[in-house]
Design a protein that fits this description.
The complex is a heterodimer of chains A (114) and B (109). Chain A has no helices and eleven strands. Chain A is mainly β and 114 residues long. Chain B is mainly beta and 109 residues long. In chain B, the strands form two sheets. In chain B, strands 2, 4, 5, 9, 10 and 11 form a six-stranded mixed beta sheet that branches. In chain B, strand 4 and strand 5 form a beta hairpin. The chains are: A mainly beta (114), B mainly beta (109). The interface between A and B is medium-sized, with 17 and 24 residues.
Chain lengths: 114, 109
């Protein structure tokens, strides 16, 4: 079974703090994704990576950055957290072989910025 | 723009059948996914349709009509554990997933 893990299930931070969210997958997947999920909205793609050290902006990259130094690990960084970044953050991974393969999701991190 | 529409919430009775609709307008189409997401948990894959027609998988079936930009997820013999949100997502011409907001399904005894 594919396993995607995220470093924290719940996180509370203060405005202006630097926040690191980490995601690890154990299936040797090439592609990894960071989404945020807010009530009434679909999943919105923040960034994705299709290989080590490669990254691509998604639909809402502003205020975020990412790092992929190792294939299994994809980090999301909030350089200076703001209250409008309070959300559920979901990481996903997918093999690179077939474009139509399903994405596998981690359990999510619920981030609250005070 | 790209758009996925699905009802916000539906209620059904245990043992019954429910159909969750999804309509889409996207730039290109490379398939449609349905995911299930229990409250506080990760979305999990249910089905993938790329050709017109009905795909059956146990109690769950998914239907696609590409000409109408329409899909539905059919859940039979509903169980309490089927209470969850159901997410519709379309793979566009760039193989990017476009997500609907999800349909919260409430099952009553």
């Amino acid at each position: 079974d594919v396993k995607v893990t995220q470093s924290s299930r719940y996180l509370v931070k203060r405005t202006g703090e630097k926040v690191f969210l980490e995601c690890v997958q154990d299936m040797d997947h090439e592609n990894m994704f960071w989404y945020r999920q807010d009530p009434g909205l679909g999943l919105r793609l923040i960034y994705f990576s299709y290989d080590v050290k490669m990254k691509e902006k998604g639909d809402i990259p502003e205020g975020y950055s990412v790092s992929r130094e190792k294939k299994e690990r994809f980090s999301l960084i909030l350089e200076s957290a703001s209250t409008n970044q309070t959300s559920m953050y979901l990481c996903a991974s997918k093999s690179g072989g077939v474009e139509t393969d399903t994405q596998y999701f981690g359990p999510g991190t619920r981030l609250t910025v005070l | 723009g790209q758009n996925i529409d699905q009802p916000t919430e539906m209620t059904a009775t245990e043992g019954a059948i429910v159909q969750i609709n999804c309509t889409y307008q996207t730039s290109g189409f490379n398939g449609l996914f349905w995911y299930q997401q229990h409250a506080g948990e990760a979305p999990t894959f249910l089905s993938y349709n790329v050709l017109d027609g009905l795909e059956e998988k146990g109690r769950f079936s998914s239907f696609l009509s590409r000409s109408k930009g329409y899909s539905y997820l059919l859940l039979k013999e509903l169980q309490m554990k089927d209470s969850a949100s159901y997410l519709c997502a379309v793979l566009d011409s760039n193989y990017q997933l476009i997500w609907g907001a999800g349909t919260k399904l409430i099952i009553k005894p």
